[in-house]
Structures are given as structure tokens and as C-alpha cells.
Amino acid sequence: MKLYGSLTSPYVRKVRVLVKEKGIACDFVVEGPSDPAGHVAALNPLGKVPVLVRDDNEVLFDSPLILEYLDSLAGQPLIPRDGEMRWQVLRWHALAQGILDAVVIRLLEVRRAADKQSPEVVTHQEAKIISALKFADSARKGPAYLVGDRFSVADLALGVALEYVDFRFPHDWRDRHPRLAHWLAGISTRGSFAETTPPGMERSLDAPH
To answer: Which domain covers residue 64, as residue numbers?
Structure first.
């Protein structure tokens, strides 16, 4: 299998973390949607990463779908197959996905020329992020993991999302939510997170918040 994606995309990083957690054989091809090689544009009609090409040449895109497919291949599932725990894990994943979407929209807006930016868009997306972090802090139950007593896609997705907040929208959320910050500090020590840290993120994670 081949996974196409950029090093800094948090959606791609989610898939890379799962691949490493489960020891799945999957080649990572560094390519963005606009790269001259053109694989992403040819494989995904939406022109987005990540894109997964299976061994039978079938193509999958959209990170939640790719995560669920890869999780089904082998080993103990990181997305429970059924029952209440499944819905709890997927709810956390949906929250994390929403955080990522808001950070990306904000980032694209602030990168526009100053006279083209919409302060309302920036403020609206920041409010979403702040609200989601408050919810995550209040909804978190266990000291180590979000659902049950072991690592799941809930932890994977929220961990990636919070580190992306640090990377692209650094602010003092740790001061407001120290319990959530403590949880992230534990999740971030996993090898799968360390091995997929995007270039440049190391500095943002080491900087005071």
C-alpha cells in the first residue's frame, strides 16, 4: 500500500500515527495536492490528502475512512467494532476533526493579504477551537485514555489535533485546561507521535505557552 500526503497535514498525520501504532506495511509518499508529480490530483477527485492506494490499486481518501479501513486489517482495533465504546471513540474523533478544520480555516485566512482577510472568519474559528477545548477538558474521564483503559483513535485524533493547535494557533490553552495539557503530555510521548512530528512543530511544542 501507499499513503500520499504532506508532512505537515494533520489529517495525514492521523493516518501515519495509526500505521505506526499497528505496524502496518504502508509506504509513505510525501506529496501535496499541488505538487508537480500530480499523483494526488489524479487519484483523488477532491484533490486532497491523505490518499491511500491499496495493494489491489483501489483508492481511498478522507482520513476517517482511511483510518477505519486500516484499523480493520490487523491487530486489536483502535476503533471498537460495536457497542457504546465505538460511539464514544467516534465522537472524540469528530470533535478532533472539527478542531483541525477550524485551525486550517483560520490559518488560510490569516495567510491571506492583510486587506483581504476577514476578522470575523478568524474570530469565529478561534471561538470554535476554544469551545472545543473546553468541551474536551470537561468530557475527559480517565487519567490516561479518553475511552476505556487503552489507547484508541479517540486519543490518536485528539492528540494530533491539540498538537496542531500548538503548531498553527499557539495560545495559552494549557493555562485554562491544565488537566487536558497533562493528558496530552502523556499521549505525546508515544513513539508513533514522536516519529510523525512535522518539521517545524518541534519548536512550537518546546516553546512556552
So the answer is: 2-71
